Structures are given as structure tokens and as C-alpha cells.
Amino acid sequence: MSNPLDLDLLKTFVAVAETGSFSSAAPRIGRSQSAVSMQMQRLEQSVGKQLLTRGSKAVVPNAVGTELLLHARKLLKMSDDALASVSRPEESGCVRLGIPDDYAAFLLPPVLARFAAEHPLVTVELVCEPSAALSQAVKDRRVDLAIITRLPDQSVEILRREPFVWVGSPLHVAWEQSPLPIALFEVGCAARMNAMKALADDGRPYRCTYSSASLLGLTAIVQAGLAIAALAMCSVPPTLRVLSRNEGLPELRDLEIGMLRSSDPRTGAVECLTGFLRRELTSEH
Predict the structure, then answer these.
(1) Tens digits of pLDDT across the chain (285 residues)
(2) Which stretches of the chain are DSSP H helices?
(3) How many CA within 13 A on the CB side of residue 9?
(4) Residue 241: beta bridge partners?
């Protein structure tokens, strides 16, 4: 008779599969890189089959691993749900959550609605600032958690990779102008750097007609036909059109959406929201 699957090993496997490397999975599950490697060896020995393909750039599940990944996510969710069902009455308190306003507009509301339904005694205070400011706010302990766009070389737990797309007004053709008029998020923003690098690599001349930390400000400029912008797919309002290579625009790299946590002693409410966001934001994409 075979041994039952170890949930800790499955949690490590899911973290490796979703982050693409042992080193990125380590901070997510609170273990060292060597411990992650040992846990994966134990899991592969347990099932009697290799689960991962180690490529030059990333570690990815093979066919067997992909099948196990589906079951692993279901088992971990069932485990979380079971724990939540017996601990819910004790979950109370306040969590200060930081998030950029472009994610707060569309990505977060349905997630927080589900959290409130499951954990009615936990209050979430939102702090909307750009990712760079939120990274500092976590260090200063002004927020307990922050959902941010990862900057190059920034150490952060990656929750999901979000498609990054060009958007324009459906009533105008600003992308046909030269130099290309673009509206950008403020200096220091990962989205801004991503868009400018794509244009530079493509050799496309452009001019920045508007710069702001506000999603509302960018979309207003784009809707007026004064520029195009680059947004996370989850932040694109229905009033704008997603553009593509057909409009002569360069391809954009995906954004990495991650989570930072303060070093303050973590309350049950903070741990509750942390686990919920991790589960919801990774499973949605």
C-alpha cells in the first residue's frame, strides 16, 4: 500500500511550479533553497516518477508533474478550506493592505469581496500608492502587506505573471502617429520601464505626453485619443481597446505581481489575508 501524499511536499511542488525555480520558491514557503530541493526529491521518490524538467531558464512540470499539479492545488485548497472552517470564529482584527490603484480598480475588488464573505470579522484598510512607495511602506511598517509590481532584481514573492498590453481608444488611431504618443506611469514604476524598454528595443520613436501614478489619469488621456498606454491586462477598462502587433507595436513582457510582508509580529488576521491572497491571486490566472 502506497503512502499518502504529504501536503508540505505538495505545497513546495506548487511553489516551484508557479515560480519556475527552487530559489524563487524558497521565500514563498519559508525554507532554504537546499530544503526545497530535498523536498522535491522526497516527493519524486514518493510518487516514483520525475515531476520536473530543468531547462536553461526555468524549472517546469513535465507531463506527469502537470497532472499532479492539478490535484495538488485541489488538495491544498481543500486543506485551507478545512482549516478556515474551524478557525473562522477566531479570525478578527485589522490588516493594512497596500496596493497600486491600477490593481485596486479591477483586480482586487472581487477578491476582497470573497475574503469579507469568508472572514467577516477581519477589517482590511487599503493604502493605494505606487509599487515603489509601497515597498518602502512595508519596510517602514506602515502597511502589513503589499501587492506590488516587481522591479528588476527585487526580492519578492511572485503571485502571478500578468499579461502587459498596449491599449488605445476605439475611436482614435493615436498609434499611427510618429513619434508615438504614449502615457506612462510615474518614473521608477516597473510598468513604465517595461514599456520604454520595449519601444527602445524596437527602435520606435516616441514621446511621453502624460505621466502619472493614477490609472484614471492615464485612461482619460487614452480615451481622448491623445496617446496610447501600457497596462496590466487585469487593469484594462472596458472603454479601451487592447492593441497588438497588427498595429505595429512591440510586444511587452509580462508583469510580475508579487507580495511583500512587514517584519512586524504577524497577527492571525494578517496571516489569514496573506494565505487568502496567495491562493486567490495565483488560482485566478
Answers:
(1) 457 889 999 999 999 988 888 988 888 888 888 998 999 999 999 888 999 998 777 888 999 989 999 999 999 888 887 776 666 556 788 999 999 988 888 888 899 999 998 888 899 999 999 898 999 999 999 999 999 999 888 888 899 999 999 999 999 999 999 999 999 998 888 899 999 999 999 999 999 999 988 888 899 999 999 999 999 999 999 999 999 888 999 999 999 999 999 887 678 889 999 999 998 888 544
(2) 7-19, 22-29, 33-47, 63-87, 101-106, 108-118, 131-139, 190-202, 215-223, 268-283
(3) 16
(4) 168
Calpha distance 143→98 (Å, rounded):
6
Cell of 91: 479570525
CB 255 within 8 A of CB 107: no
* Spatial CB neighbours of 54, under 8 Å, sequence gap ≥ 6: none
Closest CA to 76 of 279, 259, 237: 279
First-to-last alpha carbon distance for the chain, in angstroms, is 36
